[in-house]
């Protein structure tokens, strides 16, 4: 039963080989993410973050390995799992020629929400994410930061228990980034599990726990404090550099 599962996400020995190019994008990756955690998967471009998220959300099948989400098995229970999970993908998933409201409604209906419930929840999200004044604007006319917020509203519309934000805070205004983190904290207080990725190492300082990914491998994991202490570093970026031993892995 989804309510009773100990872990929000369990990934056991995940491997993903892209046949095209014969690329080992995820290399025996193991993850256990607790309920109510804010977990940041951090790594350079091309390290395998998006591939990993796509596998955890059932968009992509792993070459080998097992994925459990909220105690259910992916891809077998994908349909049930998706009722409890929200995703804001790295590439904009919202429709550019639709308005903010139309996008949010589209996702709400996809999840089978009733009209009343959908309108109430949309109202709440548009207020919190400060999108209410642009609700009738076509997404194509919005700034990057606003599009990110629309994407987050679409991911949260059905009150999920677990959300994935793939590079949600990348390239946005620092004030908006601070707002996002404050918002993530408030979602956590409501019991949500948040899994996010970033290639900006120091973004992760605010997460409960960090997984450092490099060439598809999870090379280190822990709280920001633990990692910095263990490696005698002042920042997560410094931890990463120390772990890389001067080797450059290019995508
Ligand atoms: N659809 C695909 N086909 C082939 N190779 C891919 C595909 N998607 C990603 N890759 C490759 O897999 C590796 C990991 O990519 P990705 O998961 O997007 O990393 P990240 O999100 O950390 O930037 C990279 O080498 C990338 O070029
Ligand atoms: Mg990515």
Q: How would you concisely characterize the structure shown here?
A:
The protein is α/β, with parallel strands linked by helices and 251 residues long. The protein is 34% helix and 26% strand. The termini are far apart.
Low-pLDDT regions = none
CATH class: Alpha Beta
What is the N-to-C succession of helices and strands?
EEEHEEHEHHHEHEEEHH
- The order of strands across the largest sheet is 6-7-8-3-9-10
Mean pLDDT over the residues: 93
End-to-end distance, in Å? 40 Å
CATH topology name: Rossmann fold
What is the helix fraction of residues, given as a range? 25-40%
The molecules bound to the chains, other than polymers, are: adenosine-5'-diphosphate, magnesium ion
**Quantity of strands, as a count:** 10
Helix segment tally: 8
